[in-house]
């Protein structure tokens, strides 16, 4: 679809039969941007139906202005993604550094200080953003690549894009779905590349949210069990759901099965409608995309 030195095609492209690219003004564009990944979906907000989904990997491109050049070409050549006529645009940044600050104590002038505790020194290429986590009355403060942030602002100018962190979606989604099982302790694990994001909720309250880099499944399992022990939670008390880039055959899943008796793969949020075109996509795979509406 995009011609750089080689054709860049999506890893996955799914189109619902009801999707009409001439009706972008009636649809919401929800995208997730990471270090080497772009994923987006088109949502009919009235019917809560996912109409389109694409997933791109952009590794291997020159590092200097990699994102700006790549996104500009995709925007120019894609039939509708770069349109400025969307009903709304929400961008979820998948970055490693974030911190949650209670809303009552949040001050804009201190955002650098909040992040320095988790990231250390900030770089000139960093842009600090913050977004409310409504259900817990907190503010998520996070860094993003300034180049990406500026490109989005300069491209989608008709409607001011909403910027969130991936953990906003994962937290809001977990809390919204926990109402179906208020008495249980719910632990959602979201896997991608060499990271796992952990969200634990109970009774509409957030107990823990953290993102952990790891290389070996044993390290990941130790981290999970350490967190549960720190919260004085027994494995038998916790309902654990797997999401993201993982399978029942992964070493991560096989190992945690030994310690967590109530372990299963998550489902698509019941608030969304997915048609037959999505039948072959595992329901847990694009959970971080599917939960963006909870946070936008």
TrEMBL record:
Pfam families: DUF3822 (PF12864). InterPro entries: DUF3822. It comes from the Bacteria. This is DUF3822 family protein.
């Amino acid at each position: 679809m995009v011609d750089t030195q080689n054709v860049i095609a999506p890893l996955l492209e799914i189109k619902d039969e009801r999707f009409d690219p001439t009706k972008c003004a009636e649809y919401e564009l929800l995208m997730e941007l990471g270090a080497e990944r772009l994923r987006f979906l088109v949502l009919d907000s009235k019917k809560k139906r996912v109409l389109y989904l694409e997933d791109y990997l952009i590794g291997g491109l020159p590092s200097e202005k990699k994102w700006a050049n790549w996104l500009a070409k995709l925007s120019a050549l894609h039939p509708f993604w770069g349109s400025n006529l969307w009903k709304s645009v929400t961008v979820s940044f998948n970055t490693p550094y974030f911190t949650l600050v209670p809303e009552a104590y949040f001050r804009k002038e201190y955002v650098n200080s909040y992040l320095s505790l988790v990231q250390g020194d900030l770089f000139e290429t960093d842009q600090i953003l913050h977004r409310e986590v409504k259900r817990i009355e907190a503010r998520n403060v996070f860094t993003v690549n300034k180049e990406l942030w500026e490109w989005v602002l300069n491209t989608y100018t008709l409607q001011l894009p909403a910027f969130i962190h991936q953990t906003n979606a994962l937290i809001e989604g977990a809390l919204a779905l926990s109402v179906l099982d208020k008495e249980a302790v719910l632990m959602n694990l979201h896997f991608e590349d060499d990271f796992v994001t952990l969200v634990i909720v109970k009774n509409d309250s957030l107990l823990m949210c953290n993102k952990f880099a790891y290389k070996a499944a044993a390290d990941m399992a130790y981290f999970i069990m350490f967190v549960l022990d720190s919260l004085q939670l027994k494995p038998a008390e916790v309902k654990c759901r797997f999401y993201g880039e993982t399978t029942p055959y992964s070493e991560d899943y096989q190992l945690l099965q030994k310690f967590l008796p109530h372990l299963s793969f998550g489902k698509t949020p019941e608030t969304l409608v997915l048609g037959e075109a999505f039948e072959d996509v595992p329901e847990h795979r694009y959970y971080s995309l599917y939960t963006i509406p909870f946070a936008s």
